[in-house]
Backbone:
């Protein structure tokens, strides 16, 4: 499950910003500096740690192929598990794009009431981790769920939630992943193109088909790929709804007393699939980048929806209500119901404290580390910076369950004292969320003109003073954005926390997962509400890193 | 602080395979306002950045006020009359001892994009490098921005940002002021007034100032002297009138205005051409002389010509005329003299023409 990683990681959006800036002149930074050796070594260490899970999986898989890989490859069920994973990813991706396209278009270019609010409200479901959306789906549609009863009284037999039906519904909460690239591109498309098409006599639908759709195809495909990547990597929904895709099977194997090493084999298959999709995504993201322009795009005229106005409004409201209000409503409902029924209550104080503590520690540590590549890039070691960024991408692309598994095997075989310790858990978070922080910090620092450094130097500052007084403070908003993104991702993280947290250490995420798995909905409601509330708040408050220093 | 002169001796600077500066020898006297003029990519900004210390030169040396700030110190004491071959120089390791970092050069710089610190207020920007707070506040008032002192730079107009940048550079009490295309991001209507303000302030501080621009009008209206750059070299240095009237090459001629040429042969000190024998400047190394459009005047005893086309420019009318031998010339004529297309007219050339060694055919 990679909630929080993919959801805010939009390389295509960054591409646009870079293109909007005039190309910087060739910079040659040839200042004397002997103090680069330590940052270089540090950078190499970070890159190595980022690559550790992948490297260890491969090394371990090859070394113990007869127990780790061969049984997996020779098992007939492997094919079905793989196909099921791919089918789920594809299905959810197509549905998500189908939801996202009208949402993006309606809230961008029409006279839909409240379209500005809808534009960011529609992104909020991203804050709902898949184990909470699964909780919502099970609580509503499960055997004792109110909706199932209602449907039955109407003579409708709903499919079992423990299966593809429930999993697809839970994962559709991630449809904003498909929405974001579309929004980014729509914002860049100049209204004059539309006006020109209309001016040449195209009716609205023809203008959309001939002028806009060709430009929206690539971001739509890219958004679909992001969703597919998310689904392949998801652990929360498939584990709670017991849908045996690769990531759930990895966990099951890992938990089973026999053939534990076979989980490595499944993990490697998943890594290959994710790698392929990721490569495809990077390729599509390149295609999705809108052309550069000199002037700001002209604001869109509002297309009059006419009689489509109310159906459109209902559609948008439904999407937002299901994505945002439903999780809050269902958790609150179960909280009240639990109190009324006198269900046994569990304290979540400890879990809340751990969640905050781990989130803050990870945010601090990872943001600090993420400044290093930008620092290196600006002081003339662009190649080392690129190496760190590239290496850290592997951590971003790997599913959380795979990172966790690799680290567990690494710790138990090589570094036993580290197994299930806090440093190990923080390393896992760092591997997973460093790219998220780097992306945010880079977004601010790369757009910051190096002339600022020059100006500060000529005003009498030494290089280190320039960093302390200009470079970092001017990038403040993007550094805060990075810390908030890492904090949000960490508090929602499930698989690595589940496998690597010290014994008897619970976070809100592991509590929700555990209690939902045992159908203690009343108990799971309180931590879910806290987590969802926190996630919504962070998503709303997050400073726009794109607007920081220029 | 006393202002300083700048000397560049055989300065070369490369970015990878790109030669930004090729053996540039150039100097600006203490207290003069020197304009580096050239198209983008000609090396003018690189030269400025090398003087400021943002780039380290590959060979040659730079002196500020007679002190070497980049390049080899040893040569400062005993300059060798014969320069060694390039190969040796390019392999010479850069000695940090011969390089003074930008923060020690006392150079005030105004950047093209102003490079104002986005996280600091206008007042804090100006105070950033200021020797004293009163000095910063005085400058803030001098550029007329006291009422926006607490605002962030990005809330200011381009012209205001430019003035903040100028005040910030001056507040650090520099020995030398460098301005990199300070007006290029401004509205044309703002440019002339900001040019005037900038000129007044620079002159008031009695600083050596180097201004980089691609705009001939900037150069004419500000410069004590202009150096025209092209492909990493300085083509010519001189006063604005000198350069306009007697450019040493076709490139310099067309950098500063409309350049058109007449076939001519030397005759005594003058040049014999379709307009008779005209006074001419420069050595007659080629058979072409430069005639600026405003040098052509309507005159009853002039040479016969025919108006082909005309464009009204306000004070003057740019008239394209054809001479008897088919030569086309542009003439900026006073509006009441301008003939209609097809009409005949008689033209004379006023003032001296200049021999241009590498002139293209008209």
Residues:
């Amino acid at each position: 499950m990679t909630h929080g990683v993919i959801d805010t990681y939009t390389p295509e959006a960054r591409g646009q910003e870079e293109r909007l800036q005039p190309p910087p002149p060739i910079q040659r930074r040839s200042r004397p500096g002997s103090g680069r050796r330590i940052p270089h070594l540090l950078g190499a260490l970070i890159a190595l740690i980022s690559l550790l899970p992948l490297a260890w999986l491969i090394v371990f898989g090859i070394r113990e192929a007869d127990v780790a890989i061969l049984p997996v490859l020779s098992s007939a069920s492997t094919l079905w598990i793989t196909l099921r994973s791919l089918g789920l990813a594809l299905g959810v991706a197509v549905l998500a794009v189908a939801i996202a396209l009208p949402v993006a278009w309606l809230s961008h270019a029409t006279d839909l009431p409240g379209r500005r609010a809808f534009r960011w409200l529609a992104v909020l479901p991203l804050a709902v981790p898949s184990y909470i959306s699964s909780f919502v789906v099970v609580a509503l549609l499960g055997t004792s769920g109110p909706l199932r009863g209602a449907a039955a009284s109407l003579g409708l037999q709903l499919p079992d939630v423990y299966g593809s039906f429930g999993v697809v519904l839970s994962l559709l909460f991630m449809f904003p992943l498909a929405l974001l690239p579309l929004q980014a591109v729509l914002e860049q498309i100049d209204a004059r193109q539309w006006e020109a098409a209309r001016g040449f006599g195209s009716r609205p639908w023809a203008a959309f088909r001939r002028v806009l759709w060709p430009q929206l195809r690539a971001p739509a495909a890219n958004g679909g790929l992001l969703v597919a990547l998310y689904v392949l990597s998801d652990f929360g929904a498939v584990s709670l709804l017991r849908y045996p895709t690769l990531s759930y099977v990895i966990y099951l194997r890992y938990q089973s007393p026999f053939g534990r090493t076979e989980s490595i084999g499944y993990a490697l298959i998943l890594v290959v699939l994710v790698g392929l999709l990721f490569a495809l995504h990077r390729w599509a993201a390149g295609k999705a980048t809108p052309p550069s322009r000199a002037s700001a795009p002209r604001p869109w005229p509002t297309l009059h929806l006419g009689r489509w106005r109310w159906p459109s409004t209902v559609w948008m409201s439904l999407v937002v209500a299901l994505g945002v209000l439903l999780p809050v409503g269902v958790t609150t409902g179960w909280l009240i119901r639990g109190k009324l029924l006198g269900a046994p209550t569990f304290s979540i104080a400890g879990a809340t404290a751990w969640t905050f503590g781990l989130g803050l520690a990870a945010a601090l540590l990872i943001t600090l580390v993420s400044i290093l590549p930008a620092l290196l890039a600006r002081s003339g070691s662009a190649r080392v910076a690129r190496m760190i960024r590239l290496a850290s991408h592997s951590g971003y692309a790997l599913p959380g369950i795979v990172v966790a598994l690799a680290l567990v095997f690494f710790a138990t075989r090589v570094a036993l004292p580290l197994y299930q310790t806090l440093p190990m858990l923080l390393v896992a978070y760092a591997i997973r969320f460093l790219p998220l922080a780097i992306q945010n910090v880079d977004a601010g620092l790369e757009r910051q003109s190096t002339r600022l450094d020059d100006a500060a130097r000529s005003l009498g500052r030494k290089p280190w003073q320039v960093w302390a007084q200009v470079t970092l403070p001017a990038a403040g908003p993007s550094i805060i954005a990075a810390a908030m993104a890492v904090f949000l991702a960490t508090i929602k993280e499930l698989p690595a926390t589940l496998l690597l947290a010290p014994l008897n250490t619970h976070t809100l995420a592991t509590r929700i997962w555990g209690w939902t798995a045992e159908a203690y909905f009343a108990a799971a409601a309180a931590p879910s509400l806290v987590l969802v509330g926190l996630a919504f708040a962070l998503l709303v408050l997050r400073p726009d890193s794109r607007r920081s220093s220029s | 602080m006393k202002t300083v002169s700048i000397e560049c001796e055989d300065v070369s600077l490369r970015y990878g395979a790109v030669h930004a500066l090729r053996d540039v020898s150039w100097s600006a006297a203490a207290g003069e306002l020197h304009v580096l003029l050239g198209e983008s990519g000609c090396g003018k900004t690189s030269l400025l950045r090398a003087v400021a210390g943002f780039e380290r030169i590959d060979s040659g040396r730079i002196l500020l006020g007679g002190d070497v700030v980049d390049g080899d110190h040893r040569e400062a004491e005993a300059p060798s009359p014969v320069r060694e071959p390039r190969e040796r120089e390019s392999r010479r390791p850069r000695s940090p001892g011969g390089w003074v970092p930008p923060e020690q050069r006392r150079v005030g710089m105004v950047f093209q994009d102003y490079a104002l610190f986005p996280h600091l207020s206008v007042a804090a920007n100006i105070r950033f490098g200021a020797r004293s707070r009163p000095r910063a506040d005085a400058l803030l008032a001098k550029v007329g921005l006291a009422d926006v002192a607490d605002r962030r730079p990005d809330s200011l107009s381009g012209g205001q940002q430019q003035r903040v940048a100028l005040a910030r550079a001056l507040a650090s009490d520099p020995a030398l002021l460098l301005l990199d295309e300070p007006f290029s991001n401004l509205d044309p209507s703002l440019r002339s007034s900001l040019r005037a303000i900038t000129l007044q302030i620079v002159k008031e501080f009695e600083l050596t100032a180097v201004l980089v621009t691609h705009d001939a009008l900037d150069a004419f209206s500000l410069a004590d002297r202009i150096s025209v750059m092209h492909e990493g070299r300085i083509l010519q240095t001189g006063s604005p009138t000198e350069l306009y009237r007697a450019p040493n090459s076709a490139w310099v001629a067309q950098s500063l205005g409309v350049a058109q040429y007449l076939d001519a042969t030397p005759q005594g000190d003058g040049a014999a051409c379709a307009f008779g024998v005209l006074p001419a400047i420069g050595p007659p190394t080629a058979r072409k002389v430069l005639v600026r459009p405003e040098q052509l005047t309507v005159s009853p005893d002039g040479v016969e010509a025919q108006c082909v086309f005309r464009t009204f420019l306000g004070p003057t009318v740019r008239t394209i005329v054809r001479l008897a031998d088919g030569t086309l010339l542009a003439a900026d004529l006073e509006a009441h003299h301008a003939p209609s297309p097809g009409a005949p007219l008689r033209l004379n050339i006023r003032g001296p023409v200049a021999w241009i060694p590498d002139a293209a055919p008209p």
In short: Chain A touches chain B through 25 residues (CB under 8 Å).
